[in-house]
């Protein structure tokens, strides 16, 4: 038995040298590195086993044992990493490093086995039946090492067995099977040795048999099934295992080769006739698809064909056709198209909803504000005027909420446009101050305006949007400030090239903003500290719209805030200077006392207009608003009635509501234009539809202009005055 064991060791060492040679000769990946590492470790272990079998005393045995552990300590880990790499299982680098560190610590304890109890806590050298051995009991690190070896081998067996089950290629399956047997034999020898399951295990280290068997099966996998031939494996995988079909034709146009995926796509190729009519038809189909730049659809999948010439020493020896499986790509693109259609439909539904909402809500607001304006114009009773003021304030607040939602819709759809016009910054600031002064005074807050008198007198920019941004900041400050002061500052600094940076800031002593709430500050429909501020009116869109408008103007909003102390919001926009003369004072005039003093802009007793609306109250509002202008007004409650009146009268302007039953405003306009005389009137769309793109829609439909509900008396008069012939206008002495 002693000589048999010696012989097995020599044969194992020879086999391990062969494995090392194959690993070095084919070295190209980490697979080769781990296999080489495990084989060298095994060589060191087997050589030490030979020394152990020749030991005559404990000292020589321990020296051989320590030498053997130089290799033995790493064999299990190296084989485990080899299997993991072979099967493509990912293990993080820090885990591998931690494993190596544990083994290094264990080996240090082995070097000190005579002086510590960490690895062996008892040792006794004996010779039984000619086999020298060390009777020992294990310390804590001995059991750690044993557990690790069992873990490595049996987890490795599990990983490679799973790979074997899933593998379809027969050669690869045999390769994995040989490696699995090798790992299993090593694992089995670990178990037999540690638990002394057979009598022989009590005499010497039977793991040498496990390593010998493992080496044999590993050599079979390497030599017979070319496990380490990375180039051939890669070629085999690329050619036969990927989903791309490959067909090669020679210089004579005959099929010389096809891979398995191509055979599955074209079963006639597998029948052995590679030069018949069926094969020619296949090549023609592929060539036609390439010529038309169209994919080929087969077996419910989509393939993109391409062709490449095969060159050898500068000579064309054939053509390779590749059919790439692009099914997932086309499926993804189809899903994108479907999602786009769904999104487009949802967007249309949203726009239609906004249009309907705008019309339905603006229509009664038009009547409320219109009639309220008549009360303010005609009533002389103080108490009645106060009631009317409250109605107007509430109505305009409701209108502001609707406008915020519609503005947000415009920005989202990319239909919000910045329209630069020339304007007086002093008048703009004056308007803003007048609009907020009363609200600030009602809250008992101090209002300070800091205006840079050196601002140029005439600028070019989108005055309406700048004013809207500033108004949103002022309104926000008023909402969240109950005491203290609000400071509205407007300044400028030169930007060169005939431009300035117009700087606007609003500072308050309100509630302030917590740092964690900053991220939600510009979220639409979100109010920070919603529970605490639930009584604050508004849509929660003001700051979101302001930020987006400023982005459209190439700017951004800046915030400084301390919770409980106050906030400062500011922005700067570049404006072109048209007149560099300083504006001086912003020209603030107290609007109190003449807030409701109405003066008509013109008299036009010879002018005649037609107003078409399906709601009688709206007709009454417009008639009342224009009463003092003395203009002649006809009304119609439907499209057909409007067509009839337009046919029998000559009007200067015809106002037509859009959303009317039976015949809408656009159809009514078309029918009226069909019977136009030589002096056509001006057509104005009068509607509550104020969503993005409405103005463009009406102008494209043939209207000359557009005015949205609720209609303001002054705005309506200005529009009419702009379109009436000069000879029909009689300006009033107080016209503005």
- Name the structural class: alpha+beta
CATH topology grouping of the largest domain = Rhopdopsin 7-helix transmembrane proteins
Poorly predicted ranges: 530-539, 589-596
- Quick one: overall form? elongated
Our estimate of the beta-strand percent is 15-25%
Number of domains: 5
Helix content: 40-55%
Determine and state the CATH class of the largest domain: Mainly Alpha
Largest sheet: 7 strands, mixed
Q: Could you give the count of β-strands?
A: 21
Quaternary structure of the protein: single chain
How many helix segments?
20
CATH H level, superfamily name of the largest domain? Rhodopsin 7-helix transmembrane proteins
What's the gyration radius in Å? 45 Å
Mean pLDDT: 82
Distance between the termini: 124 Å
Which architecture of the largest domain does the CATH hierarchy give at level 2?
Up-down Bundle
Question: Helix and strand layout, with pairings?
Answer:
Layout: H1 2-25, H2 30-53, H3 58-87, H4 93-111, E1 120-128, E2 131-138, H5 140-166, H6 170-195, H7 207-223, H8 230-241, E3 245-250, E4 255-258, H9 260-265, H10 277-292, E5 296-298, E6 301-312, E7 315-325, H11 327-378, H12 382-412, E8 421-423, H13 425-442, E9 446-451, E10 456-461, H14 463-479, E11 485-496, E12 499-508, H15 542-552, E13 557-562, E14 566-582, E15 602-603, E16 608-612, H16 616-625, E17 632-636, H17 639-648, E18 653-656, H18 665-674, E19 682-687, H19 694-701, E20 705-708, H20 713-723, E21 730-731
Helix pairs in contact: 1-2, 1-7, 2-3, 3-4, 3-5, 5-6, 6-7, 11-12, 11-16, 12-15, 13-14, 14-15, 17-18
């Amino acid at each position: 038995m002693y000589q048999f064991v010696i012989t097995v060791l020599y044969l194992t060492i020879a086999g391990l040298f062969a494995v090392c040679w194959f690993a070095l000769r084919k070295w190209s990946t980490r697979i080769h590195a781990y296999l080489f590492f495990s084989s060298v470790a095994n060589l060191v272990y087997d050589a030490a086993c030979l020394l152990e079998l020749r030991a005559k005393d404990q000292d020589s045995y321990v020296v051989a044992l320590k030498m053997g552990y130089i290799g033995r300590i790493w064999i299990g880990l190296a084989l485990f990493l080899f299997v993991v790499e072979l099967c493509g299982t990912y293990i993080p680098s820090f885990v591998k490093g931690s494993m190596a560190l544990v083994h290094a610590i264990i080996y240090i304890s082995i070097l000190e086995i005579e002086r510590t109890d960490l690895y062996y806590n008892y040792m006794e050298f004996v010779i039984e039946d000619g086999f020298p051995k060390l009777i020992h009991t294990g310390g804590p690190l001995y059991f750690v090492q044993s557990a690790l070896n069992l873990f490595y081998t049996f987890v490795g067996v599990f990983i490679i067995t799973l790979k074997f089950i899933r593998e379809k290629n027969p050669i690869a399956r045999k390769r994995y099977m040989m490696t699995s047997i090798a790992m299993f034999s090593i694992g089995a020898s670990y178990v037999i040795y540690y638990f002394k399951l057979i009598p022989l295990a009590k005499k010497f280290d039977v793991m040498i048999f496990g390593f010998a068997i493992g080496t044999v099966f590993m050599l079979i996998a390497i030599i017979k099934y070319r496990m380490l031939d990375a180039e051939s494996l890669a070629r085999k995988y690329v050619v036969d295992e990927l989903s791309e079909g490959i067909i090669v034709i020679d210089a004579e146009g005959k099929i010389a080769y096809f891979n398995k995926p191509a055979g599955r796509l074209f079963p006639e190729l597998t029948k052995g006739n590679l030069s018949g009519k069926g094969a020619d038809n296949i090549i023609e189909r592929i060539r036609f698809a390439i010529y038309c730049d169209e994919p080929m659809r087969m077996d419910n999948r989509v393939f993109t064909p391409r062709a490449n010439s095969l060159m050898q020493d500068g000579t064309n020896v054939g053509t390779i056709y590749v059919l790439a499986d692009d099914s997932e790509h086309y499926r993804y693109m189809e899903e994108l198209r479907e999602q786009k259609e769904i999104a487009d439909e949802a967007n249309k539904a949203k726009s239609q909803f906004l249009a309907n909402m705008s019309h339905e809500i603006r229509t009664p607001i038009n009547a409320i504000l219109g009639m309220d304006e008549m009360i303010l114009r005609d009533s002389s009773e103080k108490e009645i005027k106060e009631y009317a003021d409250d109605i107007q304030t509430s109505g305009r607040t409701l209108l502001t909420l609707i406008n915020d939602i519609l503005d947000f819709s415009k920005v989202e759809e990319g239909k919000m446009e910045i329209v630069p016009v020339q304007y007086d910054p002093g008048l703009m600031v004056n308007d803003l101050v007048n609009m907020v002064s009363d609200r600030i005074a009602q809250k008992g807050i101090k209002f300070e305006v800091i205006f840079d008198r050196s601002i140029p007198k005439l600028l070019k920019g989108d005055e309406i949007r700048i004013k809207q941004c500033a108004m949103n900041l002022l309104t926000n400050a008023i909402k969240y400030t109950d005491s203290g002061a609000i400071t509205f500052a407007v300044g400028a600094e030169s930007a060169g090239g005939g431009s300035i940076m117009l700087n606007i800031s609003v500072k308050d002593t309100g509630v302030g903003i917590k740092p964690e709430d900053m991220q939600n500050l510009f979220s639409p429909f979100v109010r920070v500290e919603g529970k605490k501020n639930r009584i604050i009116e508004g849509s929660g869109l003001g700051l979101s719209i302001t930020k987006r408008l400023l982005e459209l103007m190439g700017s951004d909003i800046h915030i400084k805030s301390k919770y409980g102390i106050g906030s400062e919001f500011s922005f700067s926009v570049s404006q072109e200077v048209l007149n560099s003369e300083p504006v001086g004072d912003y020209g603030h005039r107290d609007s109190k006392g003449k807030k409701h003093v109405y003066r008509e802009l013109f008299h036009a007793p010879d002018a005649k207009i037609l107003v078409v609306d399906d709601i009688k109250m709206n007709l009454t509002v417009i008639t009342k608003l224009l009463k003092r202008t003395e203009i002649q007004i006809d009304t119609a409650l439907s499209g057909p009635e409007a067509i009839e009146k337009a046919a029998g009268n000559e009007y200067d302007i015809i106002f037509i509501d859009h959303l009317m039953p039976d015949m809408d405003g656009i159809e009514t306009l078309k029918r009226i234009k069909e019977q136009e005389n030589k002096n056509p009137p001006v057509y104005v769309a009068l509607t509550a539809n104020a969503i993005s793109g409405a103005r463009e829609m009406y102008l494209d439909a043939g209207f000359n202009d557009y005015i949205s509900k609720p209609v303001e008396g002054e705005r309506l008069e200005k529009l009419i005055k702009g379109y009436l012939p000069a000879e029909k206008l009689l300006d009033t002495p107080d016209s503005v």
